């Protein structure tokens, strides 16, 4: 059985989701395995945590309903319902689900199905872009400084995250910054990354469910001492412990299709900032 966190916080627990999220992140290294699984699910799926039953949430987090009570109490809440109320209060202040809004658009405004889908996709993209306001400017400046001193920037990504590094490769080339995408039609990415030197830096991008090849490549480069700047979607991403700097990009979702608007906008800003920093020095 997992060891439990010994004591709940002495102060009253947060009653808003931003404060709760900060508390979970501050304590993430102290959670035993089962409670960490719940923490990951809660942060990655706040709507499902708000609306689900203890049984359904536990099943999706691959743990037991009783662990939800222990998780809540470890954070200072009276029980699971008290914790869930924070997620539900946050949900009340948000706009209706995409399905609800899509039905309303399609039925109420007389738009074609294609026009309705375009409208909702644009809404998801706007949510992604709005979430970039949470990026810490100091953290961004530190990441830019790390990348600006690179001889070569290695770009690591697979699957849904690949378009982000594809754009970065193009942008860096246009900006005169040496960058190399870790991709090969011959399957020799590991061998190519073997040419990386301590003077190089890495940008790694991966989103849930996290491509194993990306994590393996990032781990290889981290073990060789190369600083990694990662773009990911959760503080519990496997890229986080490998990274010198990491950024959580909360993408909007429409019908199960997650936007890349926030990640691409962040990549654009990062590329331009690195090029400017290199010119200054």
UniProtKB/TrEMBL annotation:
HTH rpiR-type domain segment(s): 18-94
Q: For this entry, list what GO says about its biological process.
A: carbohydrate derivative metabolic process
UniProt keywords, alphabetically:
DNA-binding, Transcription, Transcription regulation
Residue stretches making up the SIS domain: 143-281
Q: Which GO terms describe its molecular function?
A: carbohydrate derivative binding; DNA binding; DNA-binding transcription factor activity
> What SUPFAM superfamilies does UniProt report for this protein, alphabetically?
Homeodomain-like (SSF46689), SIS domain (SSF53697)
Supply the PROSITE patterns for this chain: HTH_RPIR (PS51071), SIS (PS51464)
Q: What is the protein name stated in its UniProt record?
A: MurR/RpiR family transcriptional regulator
Q: Which organism is it from?
A: Arsenicitalea aurantiaca
